[in-house]
Design the sequence.
């Protein structure tokens, strides 16, 4: 158990709806990452926080995606106007000090 | 060319075999290397972390990094059916920056 908790575990939404996912890392994780993973692919980087500051965003990240990490604790990832191509596993990972990242169990999004 | 290349397999071996999993990369700035194991519909689990070139051993697992060839390997000795999973290599240039992942190699160990 990495201590990184993601909710919900599964989300089914209709195309065009907005969805929000939550990630709760352990308190020691000053770094927090969001990744997206589709079937048969490795995790694809979306964005990265150091404490509450969003330091890096993937160029692939559509402006429909936004992430926050208020007070450097939990984080939320919102997808607006969902499309079928957004269907994927959304993974959150935390880290501290060393480069390793510790992943949660993910939120599986299905857009119908 | 993708930054990290990994043969997706699938790779099937009998129980007890030695398994070799590999990744190549193109970015010479990478200096932190990790291997993750991922079971179906679960998040990736960190197996091994290596800094720069060299070997690291942990139980049945050995990670090797050859920066001159831009090539990393994970060896699994005495493979078990419970090792059946997807193995992902990941790497980064600086501590704390984004990890770049390979596609993953699917391993099946039969009893």
Sequence:
């Amino acid at each position: 158990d990495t201590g990184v908790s993601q909710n919900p575990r599964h989300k089914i939404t209709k195309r065009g709806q907005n969805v929000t996912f939550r990630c709760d890392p352990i308190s020691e994780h000053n770094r927090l990452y969001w990744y997206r993973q589709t079937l048969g692919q490795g995790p694809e980087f979306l964005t990265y926080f150091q404490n509450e500051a969003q330091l890096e965003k993937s160029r692939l990240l559509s402006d429909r995606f936004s992430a926050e990490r208020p007070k450097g604790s939990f984080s939320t990832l919102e997808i607006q106007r969902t499309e079928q191509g957004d269907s994927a596993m959304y993974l959150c990972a935390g880290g501290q000090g060393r480069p390793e990242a510790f992943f949660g169990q993910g939120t599986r999004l299905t857009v119908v | 060319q993708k930054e990290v290349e990994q043969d997706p397999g699938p790779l099937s071996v009998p129980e007890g075999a030695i398994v070799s999993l590999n990744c190549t990369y193109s970015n010479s700035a990478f200096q932190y290397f990790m291997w993750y194991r991922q079971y179906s519909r679960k998040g990736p689990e960190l197996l091994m972390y290596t800094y720069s070139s060299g070997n690291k051993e942990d139980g049945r697992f050995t990670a090797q990094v050859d920066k001159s060839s831009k090539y990393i390997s994970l060896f699994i000795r005495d493979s078990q059916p419970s090792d059946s999973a997807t193995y992902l290599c990941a790497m980064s240039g600086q501590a704390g920056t984004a990890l770049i992942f390979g596609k993953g190699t699917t391993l099946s160990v039969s009893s």
